[in-house]
Amino acid sequence: MISVHLLGHDFKYEVSGLIKLFYPKEKINFLDQKTLVTNQSLLIESCLYNNDNSVLTKIIKDGQCMLEHNIDDINLIDIKENNRKKKIKIAIKSSLYKVLSDITNIKVPWGILTGIRPTKIVHDLYDRGEEYTVIKDILTNKYKINDDKANLIINIAKKERPYIYPLNSKRFSLYVSIPFCPTRCIYCSFPSNPIDRVKHLVEDYTDALLYEIDSVGKMMKGRNINTVYIGGGTPTALPIHQLNRIIKKIYDVFDREKIKEFTVEGGRPDTITKDMLLMLKENGVDRISINPQTMCNDTLSLVGRDHNSEDVVNAYNLAKEIGFDSINMDLIVGLPGEGVEEIEGTMDEMIKLNPDNLTVHTLAIKKASKLRDEIDGYSLAKQKNIEKMLNVTSLGTKKMMMEPYYMYRQKQILGNFENIGYSKRGKECIYNMLIMEEKETIIATGAGGVSKIFYPETNRLERVPNVKDINMYIDRLEEMVLRKNKNINFIDNI
């Protein structure tokens, strides 16, 4: 256990998040003055003092100070932004980072950043007129990000900007949630129900979804649709005629000619049939996902997927034969039992297939997953091995002439690394960039969908979630619609 004592501030969330990067398995216990005991086995003191102008961090072991680091003047922290609270937060985390990295001899690649979307820092600084050389200096010296990660997010931000800017309050994208899968993978935390258990709900759910899409069409009248993304779950787990109904409803409600990109996640190869692909192609769906996660059959069985690597190859080849010219594939680095050799084998297969996009996820231990509950029963890779595996995927994407075009991080992600979307030029997924950078309104329909209403005037985002449970979604459908409508009307009135 690691004990923490905060003096002069209450940035518990930021402090605990940073400590977990260095001590991922340790429980963190915050002490107040009454419970403070000086002979704690490991005690971290973080103090904001001198009229909130200075920070001191100490690491105390068995009553003795092992390390300390002081920042005398917070005002000297130049992040090109006059935000006092942010400067204090950076000072507290920087001082803490220094003592933790010294005592553990660990250099975490993302420095003091624990947020999900580091590219936002690049966009915000560039929007304020800063040059990329200045932005890189801030990333490496103030946020302690290593050189490779700083270059990564700067290059991704450059690639994203033509798709995101200029900002447009009248533009929106549509997300459709299909919370059904053939089986539930052990690492999954998304709204997902094994379809064999809930077959009796599929038609009622589809009817409710069509009603919600209709309602969104009415509330978004006068605005321009940009992209459509049908995700899940596994949308292709639905019976073909039900997914066909959903796609045709979208075209009935919205102007088909204005939709720049229409994505359907196939996800599970065991749900991809010739008839399913022909239906998607006939409906003008121009982008699909076929997600193996790994090409190691033993791992596929272990994580709960009812398909093998041959099924992946067959589904991919069938999609190419039918004429899909934008196919994404997803991989997960750090799956139980996998190491560098397994990732090399998977990447060799990816290079043979040569998809248009490859999204490389680093395994995250999510709260709602079976893996989180049974983590002691699985063998997971350490930070150095994760880094080696990610290097294998990076080299593989270069062989396929792909470049990073979006990225994000997650809580409890192995090794404190990241998820990166790679793409051949011109095959970038617009929706992926929009959902990550949060600079455009995205209206989500279906169980578990979370709408994100963007207010460009104040650079603010309002989250409007739908309930996750299928039965509750069907029963409370009007409530979901009214909640969104209220926020959309608010935009109209400001």
Give an overview of the whole structure.
The protein is α/β, with parallel strands linked by helices. 40% of the residues lie in helices and 21% in strands. A nine-stranded mixed β-sheet has the order 14-15-13-12-11-10-9-6-16, sandwiched between helices. Strands 2-1-3-4-5 form a five-stranded mixed β-sheet. The chain has a two-stranded parallel sheet with strand order 7-8. Helix 4 packs across helix 5 and helix 6 runs parallel beside helix 16. The protein is globular, with a radius of gyration of 24 Å. The chain starts with a strand and ends with a helix. The mean pLDDT is 91.
* Main sheet characteristics: 9 strands, mixed
Mean pLDDT reading: 91
Q: What would you call the shape?
A: globular
Number of strands: 18
**Beta-strand content estimate:** 15-25%
H/I helix tally: 16
The secondary structure category is alpha/beta
Low-pLDDT stretches: none
> How much helical structure, as a percent, in the residues?
40-55%
Rg to the nearest angstrom? 24 Å
- State the separation between the terminal residues, measured CA to CA: 49 Å
How do the strands of the widest beta sheet line up side by side? 14-15-13-12-11-10-9-6-16
